[in-house]
Automatic annotation (TrEMBL):
Residues 1-274, 661-923 form the ABC transmembrane type-1 domain. The chain crosses the membrane at residues 31-53, 111-133, 214-233, 245-266, 660-690, 702-720, 781-801, 807-826. PROSITE patterns: ABC_TM1F, ABC_TRANSPORTER_1, ABC_TRANSPORTER_2. One of its GO terms (cellular component) is membrane. Keywords: ATP-binding, Glycoprotein, Hydrolase, Membrane, Nucleotide-binding, Repeat, Transmembrane, Transmembrane helix, Transport. The lineage of its organism: Eukaryota, Viridiplantae, Streptophyta, Embryophyta, Tracheophyta. Belongs to the ABC transporter superfamily. ABCB family. Multidrug resistance exporter (TC 3.A.1.201) subfamily. This is Putative xenobiotic-transporting ATPase. GO terms for molecular function: ABC-type transporter activity; ATP binding; ATP hydrolysis activity.
Length: 926
């Protein structure tokens, strides 16, 4: 295209009546062919990259989740400051995987395209005028230096900002997820204060980001200085060396375009680097070998299990808290086929015993034996298949009741499922449900009662006909009525199996063959109920005291007490588990991370005009402002609350009116830079074709100084614009976040129990939606002022200089802009659909991670992966459509852009032939 353009400029510029309509048609047609070629290449690019990106990331997501679910339980206990493992896993599976997908379908192809532009531009430049190319190259490449330097500072700051918000977000997340504790200790103010302090750092960094962005954008003005330098060298070459004005000009233009394309590749490089970091995180997990591997086949699998369990001198501390010893020399023998009740104060180590039997953890010292075999030497999957675990808070997945029971035993028949349900006292109520066994548990508004869920969980445990039944406070969360039914189910289920029961209410283990009393990780008493009650010559021991205490409590405080213990969360809220507490399925958090969402709108909002798209305005370099385009959450769209008016949003930013004013002035300046530059560049071409050499010299000298002036002006306008809008945006974001959390902290507990108000959903809102508010105010204002003023200025100049050509070019603008816009709208709506479908996957993954113990206990990793794979099918289908849209969109944007250039030179040529305009008129406004 550049070759053709140089010819065009030569013939148009030097045309002194020699130009004919035939020449004009010939050039225009050539440019039109180039437009078709560019469009077709862009189509293939869009199609192929989008397809491959989707396939790769789907596979990554699957492998990642597979690996996460394979990890040992202790992996999930470790929490880094401010964010839980669940949070990390979900953010990796959604935003990291998205970053990789975006890099593959957009950034890498763009980067390759820019590189090739750089390469070819320089080849052409050297071919057309090697002297100019050589002279202009250092300066054209030198403007990459500030881009690189400030770009890396900017990236560093953005990452720091994300980290800083992570701390603030962590504070909010902790407060919201344990809102009961916060309320009960009246800790709202303290939380808000901590949140506010953490946000201050975010604000400071955000303002710095604006400042550096301004310097970065401003320093790009070196390109204008580059034009000045070229004007000087070019004049010398044209006047002293007799070079063609067109060749000299296009060579210089190419060198600058080459430099610009490298610069444009930079934001892509940072996105690619980020994607690489994301890939590293994903691969790190994929390659992580768990310390206890579920699928490990090295161990033994016993042919027959009796169910005798023995703890020999067990010392244990959780890997996440190695200093606090939970079990201290525990010795315990649980006879085969008997029921054993574990009792003891809170934190005495009861649940830990169950975790060790399940081999969620290995003891630090000592050995646990099953029928005389150390469980370390048994295959974990086989070992767990012999056990059935029922927890206090039953975990049901968002699938049918049948599928939920099937977690117990992969591939069990319907008869087996029904038998298990009958044995768990669950069959009768299941068949009465709207869809019987196919009823969805926990989704679509249908919810089961605690007792029903508990019985399904028991049915799941019984489906595998376990030799060992582990019941960890299986009835303590229930009311008296449900408890009775569940207790019956348990009594029935425990027959003929080794059953370990942890019960808060001592009455429920009264009939156990053996009762073991624990204190500080040691057995202090054991025996049957009667034996323990008669201990110390009828005076009784610890157990006796506990029974008496509980009896007294029941008599004295029956109503309140039962109320308290009927609500599992109340009891939990007093002594919150170190592990993320809320694990009920219907409250599964719906995460809505988006790549841009997490980046606190500091992503790479500034992008250079692509060389590919700059063809239409060949003599300017376009600076597009691309504010964070985080999409609205579906929930937000469905909200019945009316969208806030722009005025109300503006009012929220009112204290920063001074900054807004300054920012707008900067934006007006930035908007004016391009048209002025385009005018000067156009003038430069016509200067090259002047006949009088001294006239060329004097005019180009003036232009040189004007170009330098534009560079300096550009620096200050950008600085003023970005810095001030950053202050405005950051202050608003902080204000909204603080107010939002403050308001949230006044809501009743019930509100937090609603499905859409999970801590994760609220935190996502705090992080992403608040950013949208900022985009709606500051970013939008900055962009609008710059674009509207720039366009008005450019059109006015164009119309004044050559109204005919300008009118034609303005008329085709909607087509060029529309093709870009339509593509982005289409891609966005398809991306929205894919995101929605992906959300389902993220929801499932978050359920899986929260409930990883159940999955590990039932070795249901494969089942979860199957369900997860099914959720990826939707996005896959969408992505195939998306790839065509992307291809077609790229085609039209590239085609129309280049075709518009062809049209400009065709019509301009015709006007030249008719002598309605001079070359000067043609080049200046185009
Ligand atoms: N995953 C974990 N990581 C670190 N520490 C833990 C973990 N789980 C439990 N602990 C700690 O280990 C100790 C024993 O906990 P465990 O859950 O076994 O007690 P418990 O007797 O079952 O208590 P409760 O009746 O309150 O459930 C407690 O101090 C607890 O805080």
């Amino acid at each position: 295209m550049m070759f053709i353009l140089s010819e065009v400029i030569n013939s148009y510029g030097s045309s002194s009546g020699a130009l004919t309509n035939v020449d004009v048609d010939k050039f225009a047609l050539r440019l039109f062919y180039v437009a078709i070629g560019v469009g077709l290449a862009a189509f293939v690019e869009g199609l192929c990259w989008t397809r491959t990106a989707e396939r790769q990331t789907s596979r990554m997501r699957m492998k990642y989740l597979n690996s996460v679910l394979k990890q040992e339980v202790s992996f999930f206990d470790t929490q880094t400051a401010g964010s839980s493992t669940t949070f990390q896993v979900i953010s990796i599976i959604s935003s990291d995987a998205n970053a990789v997908q975006v890099a593959l379908c957009e950034k890498i192809p763009d980067c390759i395209a820019y590189m090739s532009t750089f390469f070819f531009c320089h080849i052409f430049a050297f071919t057309l005028s090697w002297r100019l190319a050589l002279a202009a190259m250092p300066l054209s490449i030198s403007f990459i230096a500030p881009g690189l330097f400030f770009g890396s500072i900017l990236m560093g700051l953005v990452m720091k900002g994300i980290g800083a918000y992570g701390v603030a977000g962590g504070i909010a997340e902790q407060a919201i997820s344990s809102v009961r504790t916060v309320y009960s200790y009246v800790g709202e103010n303290q939380t808000l204060k901590r949140f506010s302090i953490a946000l201050q750092t975010v604000t400071k960094i955000g303002i710095k980001v604006g400042l550096v962005k301004g310097i970065l954008m401003g320093s790009m003005g070196i390109i204008y200085v580059g034009w000045g330098f070229q004007a000087w060298v070019g004049t010398y070459l044209v006047t002293q060396k007799g070079e063609d004005g067109g060749h000299v000009f296009v060579a210089g233009f190419n060198v600058l375009m080459g430099g610009l394309s490298i610069l444009s590749a930079l934001p892509n490089l940072t996105a690619i680097t980020e994607a690489l970091a994301a890939t590293t995180r994903i691969l790190e997990m994929i390659d992580r070998v768990p310390s206890i591997e579920t699928e490990d086949r090295k161990g033994k699998a016993l042919s027959h299990v009796r169910g005798e369990i023995e703890f020999q001198d067990i010392y244990f501390s959780y890997p996440s808290r190695p200093d606090s010893q939970v079990l201290q020399g525990l010795n315990l023998k649980i006879p085969a086929g008997k029921s054993v009740g574990l009792v003891g104060g809170s934190g005495s180590g009861k649940s830990t015993i169950i975790s060790l039997i399940e081999r969620f953890y290995d003891p630090v010292e000592g050995e646990i034996l099953l029928d005389g075999h150390a469980i370390r030497r048994l295959q974990p999957k086989w070992l767990r298949s012999k056990m059935g675990l029922v927890n206090q808070e039953p975990v049901l997945f968002a699938t049918s009741i049948r599928e939920n029971i099937l977690f117990g035993k992969e591939g069990a028949s319907m008869d087996e499922i029904i038998n298990a349900a009958k044995a768990a006292n669950a069959h009768d109520f299941i068949v009465k449900l709207p869809d019987g066994y196919e009823t969805q548990a926990g989704q679509f508004g249908f919810q089961l009662s605690g007792g029903q869920k508990q019985r399904i969980a028991i049915a799941r445990a019984l489906l595998r006909d376990p030799k060992i039944l582990l019941l960890d406070e299986a009835t303590s969360a229930l009311d008296a009525q449900s408890e009775r039914v569940v207790q019956e189910a348990i009594d029935q289920a425990s027959k003929g199996r080794t059953t370990i029961i942890i019960a808060h209410r001592l009455s429920t283990i009264r009939t156990a063959n053996l009762i073991v009393v624990l204190q500080a990780g040691k057995v202090i008493e054991s025996g049957s109920h009667n034996e323990l009650m008669r201990k110390n010559g009828e005076k009784g021991g610890e157990y006796f005291k506990m029974v008496q205490l509980q009896q007294m409590a029941t008599q004295n405080e029956a109503p309140e007490d039962s109320q308290v213990y009927d609500k599992p969360w109340r009891r939990r809220s007093v002594a919150p588990s170190p592990i993320s507490a809320r694990s009920s399925t219907h409250n599964t958090p719906i995460y809505s991370f988006s790549g841009t969402g997490m980046s606190i709108s500091m992503g790479t909002p500034v992008s250079m005009g692509t060389p590919r798209s700059t063809m239409g305005t060949p003599y300017s370099f376009s600076v597009q402002y691309d504010p964070d385009d985080g999409s609205y959450d579906e929930d937000l769209k469905n909200s019945t609350y009316p969208p806030p008016s722009q005025w109300r949003l503006l009012k929220m930013n009112a204290p920063e009116w001074g900054q807004a004013l300054l920012g707008c002035l900067g934006a007006i300046g930035s908007g004016a830079v391009q048209p002025i530059n385009a005018y000067c560049v156009g003038s430069l071409i016509s200067v090259y074709f002047l006949q009088d050499k001294s006239e060329i010299k004097s005019q180009s000298r003036v232009l040189t100084f004007v170009f330098i002036g534009i560079g300096v002006f550009n620096f200050f306008t950008n600085l003023i614009q970005h810095y001030n809008f950053a202050i405005m945006g950051e202050k608003l974001t902080t204000r909204v976040r603080e107010q939002l959390l403050e308001k949230l902290m006044t809501f009743e507990i019930g509100w937090f129990d609603e499905d859409e108000n999970t801590s994760a959903a609220i935190c996502a809102r705090l992080a992403t939606e608040v950013n949208m508010v900022r985009s709606l105010v500051g970013d939008r204002m900055s962009l609008l002022v710059q674009a509207v003023f720039g366009a008005t200025f450019a059109y006015t100049v164009g119309l004044v200089l050559t109204w005919r050509l300008s009118l034609v070019m303005i008329a085709v603008q909607p087509l060029v802009i529309g093709s870009f816009y339509a593509r982005s709208i289409l891609m966005k709506s398809m991306g929205e659909k894919a995101r929605k479908a992906q959300k389902e996957g993220s929801q499932l993954a978050s359920e899986a991670v929260i409930n990883h113990r159940t999955i590990t206990a039932f070795s249901s990793q494969k089942k979860i992966l199957g369900l997860f794979g099914a959720t990826l099918a939707g996005p896959k289908k969408e992505s195939i459509k998306q790839s065509y849209v992307s291809g077609a969109g790229l085609f039209s944007s590239q085609f129309f852009n280049t075709a518009a250039t062809a049209l400009a030179y065709w019509y301009g040529g015709r006007l030249l032939v008719l002598e309605l305009i001079t070359p000067k008129h043609l080049f200046r406004p185009s």
